[in-house]
């Protein structure tokens, strides 16, 4: 391609980005405004005009899929030699290359997941943590490491940041310290350590820094609002005293502050680089004017915003967003399933429909509703597509068939028939199995591979099986899964960067969005941005809904999210047509908080039936009486007070006020032995 041809078809702002071939450059890019198009054309234009050679460019993003997409687009634009990697992949490549020279000896093994090591550390600290608690503690250790807080600094850092640790602060600090000790003893390196060590090697070894900076002279960083302090430190180390840097981001989509990400690096870019060129992309090519209007309304009420971006719709008119209120969450889910099925019947592919929620615990109700309505669905954030057993088996079969000349063996059948023939050996059939279990999930995976073959054949009629296998291997390396034919269920956080023709935003009630533990103005504003991200995922159809109670027949105490104030227009309040709930799968997963619905993972919260900081109806007088009684019993029996009942169990009793032995038995911590031994006395104290 010629340099001028690369600029063709760009809008004025995109072209301004592409022509700004010298840094520093800051691109503020709204949702759906073509930021990837702008930065890839900028890189291609710079290489084609001789400003930089492709091998001297490092484009950094946050996911392997996004990096793969950048490389693919750059190849099409005539810049195939550009390095497009995640921060971690780039750091690992450099560390692996320089390790023999600057460190020597056996290089450390990379820890793919912290959970196993955290579990070992917890056991060494004599702490009993469940699977969910281990995951949360692992996340807390990641936050501490990316914000450069050591175990001894962690307690003070938590207070300063206003965080809610998943366990006692001192316990998390102990596990963190033991985690680091075990990691060093076992010669392991986690992702945060990888970034830190790479930066240290460059800082301490001038010849290494010189070699890296000679290799990479031209930097582009996508999603710059999500950069954390550790990534920023590594980027600064790569740059040295140069400023050939282009950053791209959207302050309105800053939703990962809890992981240590900070939008300040994007917002303060011009302070750090006073001569920087700033370009705003605001032409929205994704969504209809109706969706864009609502998105602007949501973010327009944000407080303390710098560099506000107001989107300008470029698409034709579409339907108005729908706002629906329901008696309970079950009715809300049933109607979402009914509406999704209607869209599918009207021609919207199931894979172009998404149901998005604030917390993963909300997923179960929608899984049940969709299954009952006969609507296929896929869970985003579940097992990676290319790691599924059936997909691994299918790829092995396809690779073997390609090596054996599979195209010829199948008598000249086209790519589509060839792939289907091979997949049939893995159990694929033209029609899906009945029901929604594991067999259906397996079929959906194989069907996605068959559909990918159809897409490739449509794009390139000459493509053969070896081409298809090469495509699969490239996608697997980039974790670029083909779209599965089902309605997507995902959290708002997991939906960022994606888009669908139709989006259902559900559970938009106070206590869920904003989540009840968002207390500070900064936390509330991040919750508002979550809703904005959800709205901007929709191309055409957008449904927003909330329920007045959690369960059928429950007290209707909830109210719509404050973020919808003044934006809802006409709200439809109704009870949908009856659904046969006998088809619903039984509920599973963590116990939800009875106040806010958040999944309860800590043992004390499960006993209380609510988050520790959710409002309660505690009978203080009863709690004091229970504690006095417990002290007397423990003295008489010569056992510690907690052996009778723990504080959490007494608090749960004081909150619930049981009126019978049956009600008392339902409180966690009151087993059969304690019920027989203390039940009558406790009920007497409760006034029964």
Structure description:
The chain has 688 residues and is an alpha/beta fold. The protein is 48% helix and 11% strand. It has a 7-stranded parallel beta sheet, sandwiched between helices. The longest helix is centred in the middle third of the chain and has 22 residues, at 438-459. The protein is globular.
Q: What is the average of the pLDDT values?
A: 84
Share of helix, binned: 40-55%
Strand order of the largest sheet: 13-14-12-15-16-11-17
Structural class: alpha/beta
Instruction: Report the biggest beta sheet as strand number plus sense, adding barrel if it closes.
Output: 7 strands, parallel
* Overall form: globular
Number-wise, the strands total: 17
Question: Cα distance, first to last residue?
Answer: 85 Å
Structure summarized in a few sentences:
The protein is 48% helix and 11% strand. It has 688 residues and is an alpha/beta fold.
Blueprint (SSEs and pairs):
Elements: H1 3-7, H2 12-19, E1 25-29, H3 35-48, E2 57-61, H4 64-76, E3 83-86, H5 87-102, E4 109-110, H6 115-124, H7 131-146, H8 154-161, H9 169-185, E5 188-189, H10 191-204, H11 206-215, E6 218-221, H12 229-239, E7 245-249, H13 264-267, H14 269-272, E8 277-281, E9 283-284, H15 289-300, E10 312-313, E11 322-326, H16 329-345, E12 353-357, H17 363-372, E13 377-379, H18 389-403, H19 406-409, H20 415-424, H21 438-459, H22 465-478, E14 487-491, H23 492-495, E15 500-505, H24 521-535, E16 538-547, E17 571-573, H25 603-608, H26 620-637, H27 641-644, H28 647-656, H29 661-665, H30 672-685
Parallel strand pairs: 1-7, 1-8, 2-3, 2-6, 4-5, 6-7, 9-10, 11-16, 11-17, 12-14, 12-15, 13-14, 15-16
